[in-house]
Amino acid sequence: MPDLSELERKTAALRAQLSRLAPVVVAFSGGVDSGVLAYVAHDVTGDDMLAVTARSESYPMRELEFARAFCAKHGIPHAEIDSGELDVDGFADNPPDRCYLCKRELFGRLRALADARGYRTLLDGSNADDLGDSRPGMRAARQAGVVSPLLELDFTKDDIRALARQLGLTVLAEKPSFACLASRFPTGQRITADALAAIEAAEDYLHDLGLRQLRVRVHATEGVTTSAAVGTGDGGAGMLARIETDAAGMDLLSDPATRTAAAEKLHALGFRWVALDLTGYRTGSMNL
Questions:
Q1: Percentage of the chain surpassing pLDDT 70?
Q2: Are the C-beta atoms of 124 and 141 separated by less than 8 Å?
Q3: pTM recorded for the entire structure
Q4: What is the biggest distance separating any 2 CA atoms in the chain, rounded to whole angstroms?
C-alpha cells in the first residue's frame, strides 16, 4: 500500500507539472494509467486538454467503448483517430521492435493532431513499473517528444491505482491491466487482421464468462502460419490458444461445463488446441 503522504506529494507535483505543460493532448488507451492522467489533466486545466484514443485492429472494441464512456461521464474532451499499424512496414512480421514501429506511427499521428489543434504538449501514461519490462515503445515516445509525467514523478502502478481510489475512480482502480492484442503473438510469428479478430472474440467471450485478468496467447505449430490457422472458423490448421489468467479465473475454469464451453467457443474461432497456462497471468510472458 503506498504511503499516503508520499502519494500526496507526488500528486501535488503532478498537478503542478500539468499546469505548466498545458495545453496538452493525452494519449488515452482506456487503461488505468492514461485514465488517471487524463482525469487529473482535465481537473487541472479544464478544457485546455484533449484525450485522444487510437482505433486499430489490435485495439479491442471493448476498450474503445470504455474510453468513450469514461470521458463522457467525466466531461473530458475526447477525440478518436485511426492508427493503421498493420500497414506500417515490418509491423506484421512481428520483429522484436514491433512496439517501437507501432508507437512511432501512433505518436506521429498524435503529434500531427496536437500541432493542428494548437496543443503544446503530448503526454502518455508510462509509469515507473514500465521500466522493469521490455518497452521498445518508450524509445518512440522519447523521439516524438512525448512527456511521461507519471514516470518522471516515479508513480508506480500501485500509486496510480491508489490515486484512482482517492479520486473516486473505482472503475479505473479495479480495472485489469491491458496490452494491445499484438502482444499475444510470439516474436517472429506473423500478425494478421483475422488472427487479431479471433483473439479479441476469444477474450471477449472469456471476459463474459467472468474472467477478469487474462490473455489469450497464440502459438503456431511447426509449419503453420497464423493466417492459415486462425480466423477461419473451421477448427484451424494447428494453432494453439494458451489462456493466461489469475487464480480467480482458474477457479472459474475448474468447472467442467464452463471449461468445455470455453474450449468449444475457441475451437469455433479457429483454434485447434486450447490450453490453460498453469503458471497463470503475467505481463511480458512473450518476452521470455
A1: 90
A2: yes
A3: 0.90
A4: 57
In CATH, 4-173 is 3.40.50.620: yes
E strands within 175-238?
214-220
Cis-peptide, bond into residue 23, ω within 30° of zero = yes
Q: What is the pLDDT of residues 120-136, one digit of tens each?
A: 999 999 999 988 665 77
2 φ, ψ to 5°?
Answer: -60, 145
The C-alpha cell that represents 50 in the structure block: 484533449
User: Are the C-beta atoms of residues 51 and 26 closer than 8 Å to each other?
Assistant: yes
Neighbours of 171 (CB within 10 A): 14
Cα separation values, 209 from 63, 106, 253, 261, Å: 17, 33, 9, 10
What residues have CB less than 8 Å from 153, skipping those under 6 apart? 10, 13, 14, 17
Residue 113, C-alpha cell as written in the block: 493532431
pLDDT band at 222, cuts 50/70/90?
A: low
What's the chain's length in residues?
Answer: 288
Q: Facing residues of 80 across strands? A: 53
**Separation of alpha carbons 116 and 204, rounded Å:** 36
Signed CA dihedral, 99, 102, 108, 110: sign only: negative
